[in-house]
Specification:
Blueprint: H1 18-23, H2 28-34, H3 38-48, H4 60-65, E1 76-81, H5 90-97, H6 99-113, E2 117-122, H7 129-142, E3 158-163, H8 173-180, E4 204-208, H9 209-221, H10 223-228, E5 230-231, E6 234-235, E7 238-244, E8 250-254, H11 260-265, E9 279-283, E10 292-293, H12 294-298, H13 310-313, H14 317-320, E11 328-333, H15 338-352, H16 358-375, H17 381-394, H18 402-426
Parallel strand pairs: 1-2, 1-4, 2-3, 7-11
Antiparallel strand pairs: 5-6, 7-8, 9-10, 9-11
Helix pairs in contact: 2-6, 2-9, 3-6, 5-6, 6-9, 15-16, 15-18, 16-17, 16-18, 17-18
The protein binds 1,4-dihydronicotinamide adenine dinucleotide (NAI) and iron/sulfur cluster (SF4).
């Protein structure tokens, strides 16, 4: 059984409230951290090997140590709670059921970074969660863990919750900062990174909800002990939101030593595939990461089992591997159509493109239109090569990673399931799905 660090108390009745959370040892880590120096906390996080849990897996301690510290300029911590990646809902679970863990992590992290103001930017669709967070903030403040002179240590911190308005792109850190400043959520060119020039041009650390929550157990058990959990550079525990064709969809905390097979089939996690169907493919890290067919999912190219961790999932690089990403684990059984699935994702990215760069603005709807043609029996063999060409021209040629995120699923689908594309083109009469008539809403003409 995987070790639990983040969700170990999530089942306790009333844990959403300060009194119950405190009885379980909540806020002990703040007391410990405020007796340390900020630099010592950053060192603990570095030692822990914690990597960003939003998708990129960037080392958190390193990101913190990049934070510029010019005299007289405020610094900010911004928590990215704009969890919009299709298939990803682990931060929602954490904020909804154990909000004080996030608030506690924010206090420790803000102290370590020298920030006196911190924000939680939360996606608009999580309409009921800001209230839960605001209540937790009020309770923490009433208990002396927020506001002026926290625990009499001379440290001040205010936390604010800002609701987004439902744009996927606002989960990209610089678009999020633009939105937080009250502007349209257009990504900025990087560098400069937010650590140097972030919110209102001040040095800013943007971290995912789960990343900041993980700082609490790191301080409680020490970075060295945290680093012993997991394997290699995949230290600690990871929340995985599992969905699709599985018996037990939900949020699971794993220690990154289990195999993909165990995760899908064991009763402790997904509980297998309904109706004894076979596994076809899986997208292990949210919709942006490459889809992997079952044969490569259960084993690596070296014949080793594939593990639920950053290195093993990427084994063989993008040509055969995929990414841990945000931990949004989507399972497809043998009945699922890869062309339809890819078309649906292409539609999503075309709809969410902010339109700033030509390859993404023009390429994403173009890919969707071609995929729709293939899916509805109007495709040609040349379309497959055209699709491949378009995705190649988007990848790496845009301001933000949304372009890559739109290109990778198309590339991986063609690479691993070209025969399905060809079958659609060869057998248009067999395609019985009735788009345009059967209630299929298509906002992109
Ligand atoms: P990135 O690799 O560009 O950056 C990772 C983090 O490290 C950023 O905070 C960046 O500011 C920081 N960083 C990198 N180099 C730095 C340097 N030299 N100095 C200072 N800071 C530096 O990745 P990005 O754009 O933040 O995230 C892309 C990932 O997000 C994708 O892998 C995707 O899986 C994931 N994603 C997650 C979503 C979600 O809802 N959780 C939604 C969409 C994408
Ligand atoms: Fe906007 Fe797409 Fe360019 Fe990102 S890649 S800045 S979403 S147009």
């Amino acid at each position: 059984m995987s070790k639990k660090l983040l969700l170990k108390d999530a089942h306790i009745e009333g844990i959403r409230h300060y009194d119950v959370y405190r009885k379980q040892g909540g806020y002990d880590a703040v007391e410990k951290a405020l007796a340390m120096t900020p630099d010592a906390i950053v060192e603990e996080v570095k030692t822990s090997g914690l990597r960003g849990r939003g998708g990129a897996g960037f080392p958190t301690g390193m990101k913190w140590s990049f934070l510029a510290k010019p005299e007289g300029i405020p610094r900010y911590l911004v928590v990215n709670a704009d969890e919009s990646e299709p298939g990803t809902f682990k931060d929602r679970y954490l904020m909804e059921f154990i909000p004080h863990l996030l608030i506690e992590g924010m206090i420790i992290s803000s102290f370590a970074l020298g920030a006196n103001t911190a924000y939680i930017y939360i996606r608009g669709e999580y309409a009921w969660i800001p209230e839960i967070l605001e209540q937790a903030i009020d309770e923490a403040k009433a208990a002396g863990f927020l506001g002026k002179n926290i625990l009499g240590k001379g440290y001040d911190l205010e936390i604010y919750v800002q609701r987004g308005a439902g744009a996927y792109i606002c989960g990209e850190e610089t678009a999020l900062l633009e939105s937080l400043e009250g502007k349209r959520g257009n990504p900025r060119l990087k560098p400069p990174f937010p650590a140097v020039k972030g919110l209102w041009e001040s040095p800013t650390v943007v971290n995912n909800v789960e990343t900041i929550a993980a700082v609490v157990p790191i301080i409680n058990i020490t970075g060295a002990e945290y680093a012993k959990i997991g394997v290699g550079r995949s230290t600690g525990t990871k929340l995985i939101s599992a969905c699709g064709n599985i018996n037990k969809p939900g949020v699971y905390e794993i220690d990154m030593t289990i195999t993909v097979e165990e995760f899908i089939y064991s009763e402790e996690y997904c509980g297998g595939i309904p109706n004894g169907k076979k596994l076809k493919a899986c997208i292990p890290g949210g919709s942006s990461v490459p889809i992997v067919p079952a044969n490569l999912l259960l084993k690596t190219i070296n014949g080793e089992p594939r593990y639920m961790n950053y290195e093993s999932l990427a084994d063989g690089g993008f040509a055969t591997g995929t990414m841990m990403g945000s931990g949004g684990f989507i399972v497809l059984d043998e009945d699922q159509c890869i062309v339809k699935h890819t078309m649906s994702l292409a539609h999503f990215y075309a709809h969410e493109s902010c339109g700033q760069c030509t390859p993404c603005r023009e390429g994403t709807p173009w890919m969707y239109k071609i995929l729709k043609n293939i899916e509805t029996g109007k495709g040609t063999m040349a379309d497959i090569d055209l699709l491949w060409d378009i995705q190649r021209k988007i990848e790496g040629n845009t301001i933000c990673p949304l372009g890559d995120a739109a290109a990778w699923p198309v590339a991986a689908a063609i690479r691993h399931f070209r025969d399905e594309f060809e079958w659609h083109i060869d057998n248009p009469e067999a395609l019985t799905r009735n788009y345009g008539l059967a209630g299929y809403a298509d906002p992109i003409p």
